[in-house]
Amino acid sequence: MQNIRKISDSTIRRLSLYYRALSNSEKDGYFTVSSQDLAKKERLTPAQVRKDLSFFGSFGTRGLGYPVKELKEKIGSILGLNRSWNVALIGVGNLGSALASYKEFQKQGFHIKLLFDNDPKKIGSSIDGIPILDIKQIGTQLKQNKIDLVIMTLPGHTAQGVAEEVVRAGVKAILNFAPVSLKVPEDVFLRNENMAIELEYLSFCLKNRNNPGKHA
Amino acid sequence: MQNIRKISDSTIRRLSLYYRALSNSEKDGYFTVSSQDLAKKERLTPAQVRKDLSFFGSFGTRGLGYPVKELKEKIGSILGLNRSWNVALIGVGNLGSALASYKEFQKQGFHIKLLFDNDPKKIGSSIDGIPILDIKQIGTQLKQNKIDLVIMTLPGHTAQGVAEEVVRAGVKAILNFAPVSLKVPEDVFLRNENMAIELEYLSFCLKNRNNPGKHA
DNA sequence: AATTGTGAAATTGTTCACAGCA
DNA sequence: TGCTGTGAACAATTTCACAATT
Fold it and tell me: How many angstroms separate the most distant Cα atoms in chain B?
């Protein structure tokens, strides 16, 4: 636990998988799981599971395995899921509205508080009780509502400009669905969710049909 | 090119990024780009760009760089974007309908031919001219329409069963949006698009606010 | 002068194998 | 006995550095 060292990107992503697997095990009534169990569920190796967890502490009992509930809570708190985050979503098109009404996010503590669009027909209305505001108000509203994280679901050509406003408003995390590589300062965390990449990857696999490339 | 060797997962994904960057450069009227240019656009190193491309051949000219149009076409053909793929989408909820009407996929050769749902109210209607069929017909329809690739946007608990039907129908590529780890045979290519993972990753970064973890 | 293409070196990530404990 | 935790071994990936080419 003292080793505040470089935790790899992939370790963090696998933590999310473990968290999900543990939630399911909990629902199914299990009290303990072994690294073997976790590995099988997520198509990994037991050693990998143990190594990943070991970066954060020793949560298991030798001979027995890991306590489901406690490990889930522990991973949740590592990932920051034991608190709530204020989220805003910019671009209420097809994808944006779909995400706005996606209940899973709320459950994990990501509370979508504001929606933004530039379409006068949409501004003033709401989705599932979340108001759609004028995109021009981003600066003031993001600050006023203490937004921690912004989801961008808008057309590619407008994304960079909007991202800059978001950054100016002090937001430090952006999940970007627009099909462009955003430029943001070093201290802003950015992830790109790019469905084209996944489709193209599958296309590559189909075309070179031989060696598989499982999982994501 | 002769080296039919293990091309890494990450190399293929970066190819998608290069493809996108080259499309933009082409639109902007550039005839050549250097590895430096490409790297800057996608936040990578020039060496990485050159190494990635070198797995597939020598497309550049020393001293000059890469010809935009040709390199784009070359990468397109490596990724299998120079042909068309028949796609079906299963689960016409919020996310499913959003993706069904997302025009970018069509442009890249991914033609969504069929939609499936189990809701009698939806079956028989259509989205942008794509018919919504009864999910019970998956078996026959996927085969009849020579579907290459299936996008699954349905609730987690139903996903595994449906995936098995899809596999039985001979489909070899699945893009899964359901929040579960699907089990499919070795010869079926599977990618998981998992938005929760990206949000949780950002949550982790915010919580441990110090060292950044850019990009996706 | 600029920029590619590529072995070799450095780094990062994964798996092994086993000591240590319940 | 069974399973964790972890250093050491191994494998994969990235970066370096430079000869080759225009």
Answer: 63
For the stretch A177-203, pLDDT in tens is: 999 999 999 999 999 999 999 999 999
> Å from A99 to nearest chain B CA?
7
Which nucleotide's C1' atom has the smallest distance to the CA of B46? D15
Give tens-digit pLDDT for B7-40.
999 999 999 999 999 999 999 999 999 999 999 9
> Contacts of residue B179 in chain A, CB cutoff 8 Å?
20, 104
Nearby residues of A120 by Cβ (< 8 Å), 6 or more positions away: none
Cβ contact, residue pair B94, A81, below 8 Å: no
* C-alpha R_g of chain A: 20
Contacts of A12 in chain B (CB under 8 A): 200-201, 204, 213
Strands (E), chain B: 32-33, 66-67, 85-90, 110-117, 126-127, 130-134, 149-152, 173-176, 189-192
Lookup result for tokens 């491309």: B53
What domains appear along chain A, each with residue ranges and CATH number? Answer: 9-79 (1.10.10.10), 85-197 (3.40.50.720)
Nucleotides of chain C within 7 Å of a protein C-beta?
1-7, 12-17, 20-22
Among B89, B91, B84, B140, residue whose Cα is nearest residue B113: B89
